[in-house]
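FAQ
Q: What does a multi-component entry look like?
A: The components come first, one per line:
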Amino acid sequence: MKKRILENSPTRGEVLAKLFAVWQAPVRTEFVSTKDAIGRVLAADAVSLIDDPVVRASKMDGVAVKSEAFKAGIPDASAWALGRDYVRADTGDDFDDAFDAVIAVEEVEFLAGGGLRFLPDTEPVTSGTNVLGTGEKITRGLRLAPKGTRLLAADLTAIAMGAVSEIEVYRRPKAVFIPTGSELTPLGQIPARGQTVCSNTVLAEHLLAEMGAEPLIYPIVRDDPGALRDALAQAAAEADVILFSGGTSKGAEDYTHALLAERGELICHGIASAPGRPLALALMDGKPVVNLAGPPIACFCGLDWCVRAIIDSFFELSPRKRHTVSARLAESIGSPPNFELYIRLSLEKTADGYTARPLSHFGGSPADSMRAEGLYITKLIPEPTEAGDVIEVELMR
Amino acid sequence: MKKRILENSPTRGEVLAKLFAVWQAPVRTEFVSTKDAIGRVLAADAVSLIDDPVVRASKMDGVAVKSEAFKAGIPDASAWALGRDYVRADTGDDFDDAFDAVIAVEEVEFLAGGGLRFLPDTEPVTSGTNVLGTGEKITRGLRLAPKGTRLLAADLTAIAMGAVSEIEVYRRPKAVFIPTGSELTPLGQIPARGQTVCSNTVLAEHLLAEMGAEPLIYPIVRDDPGALRDALAQAAAEADVILFSGGTSKGAEDYTHALLAERGELICHGIASAPGRPLALALMDGKPVVNLAGPPIACFCGLDWCVRAIIDSFFELSPRKRHTVSARLAESIGSPPNFELYIRLSLEKTADGYTARPLSHFGGSPADSMRAEGLYITKLIPEPTEAGDVIEVELMR
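Then the predicted structure of the entire assembly, as tokens:
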């Protein structure tokens, strides 16, 4: 099958090395509101604008007192007056400079005349007891989150704690996705004989958004050189990255990769990794163009290793690794061929740990395989992996 | 500190059990477009509407032939005619019923007159060679994703593969979040002496959205019983769940929990888990109302265990567990008190595995602690956890 094209094709790593040797993503940043920056990537350290507390804050709900009144032990406070000898100071409260220590409300009895009685187990009181001083929570200039952080809710909260309401983030690259194939019907229509539903647009839209790109999903383009050329021209005018699915192989109507070779500089056509072996990558007017294979799992693979690395490079990041678990293989996956194989797995947790079972996309439904819990990529070293072997499985869900 | 209120306070599990004994989330579903359903939860199995292939599909780019011509081995096809003896059939293509097998394009030489020559290593051809029959990828009625699935890109793609363009999901509960405290300034203003930035709104908005709720974030409410009462009345009119932050403790201006006790049925005030011990939970007009403690880390804890469980119950789900890693503690966390302690940790990967270091929110900055990579919750069993002990750390990033 497709022996001639794909023999001696480069590995995923070789393809990316070749791309990044001739192309680098432009560094473009913008300022956005902290509260809306979820999922964005910080382009500069976020640094606190304030000291917190600004001056001081009580560590607890209580009363602020003058510590000198406690020099000889717990005083008789029955004749104390609110405002003169003490004030209320609850958690986080600042209070007048005349006072310098806080006693927890649980240690205090409030007397009818305004005086106080401290309980016998009241802790010793000295200047600063139960009081946070200037900047003891956050110092002005403290790094709240470093450049390169993919911003989660916790990061935005930490940044807000330092009163930073605008932050510098990388711009989201615009990724145009063009599904191609005369056999495709849009989701919402029932496919007739010879047709199949275009599901790659759903996959691409959400994976691209998750990566931090701005997805621009084009309508289906038929296998027609003119229509493909028009779509490519439109994409070139608005995209930072252009993605096609379908038309990359050796079919009579596989025009896309030929178009890329004609319009751009072809970096690879065919990779040592499957599904998705016929992937083509080109540079056109200084923009990466990826021709992903059409089948949904193959399209996923190309998005996962190739497009993800391209999008991450706009953020000056390397792709994240997924969390993994060790799992025992339930079935042999045999000797891998001379290319990497994305093996999608179901995972079952038992008393002995995880058991992983390959969801072959040849045997089972590709719909099941698409939803796999686990992923294992075989090594290029031709070492058989047998039932009972323990492998590290990437967690997909 | 706050001994009297909090002694013998219930555990997190006891609080939730008490809530769910008297309250159940209403089950409300709606139909939404598959492509827009990211993050939603399926309220019914999604089932394929189609067979794929509808009739048949070539497994590869090639030519469709009549297998009977191959009964006696590879035929002389030099006089074959396109349309009569063979047709082009690329990956996924259907073709006329006159043909019943596909030969890969790599095995075929196309002759000038329209005939073919098959390469000597062409595999044996019988009826169905390299052809997928009706429903061999997806059968009509196949379950594409089960009820209760939190929909990821892969799930939506699998559902689209079965031509399902609308799916039944649970409605998103509306969660009103009301930040309270006269000391709070909104993000965008630099706090003056005695003030602090309201960062809990940023935290709540994004965590609630991540949980699948629709967050409605109210402006800051001062510590004023009338203003709190008005906010609660407005929330009651539009929310499924009402959340306050601040005002839950024993401060002179902590009106919120008192208001809950007055307007609703108090389920707890004070829990055996810190930070966030003064959390209060009530039912008001059949709706859960949670009064979270004001400090951001305490607010996070309450959102994480209590609000998450409430939101998940609208989807008939139990809260997910986070992935964990085994890590060696770099410092003692000593004997836990008689309540659970959320210990936030930094994680370092070394040759020997992970090392975890507590980011005390008493010592270090709460901004660092907010962004912790790891979380460990101490057990109620008073067993000291010392430096060098191996613990299971929840991964937060």
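Q: Is there any commentary attached?
A: Sometimes. For this entry: The two ends of chain A are 32 Å apart (CA to CA).
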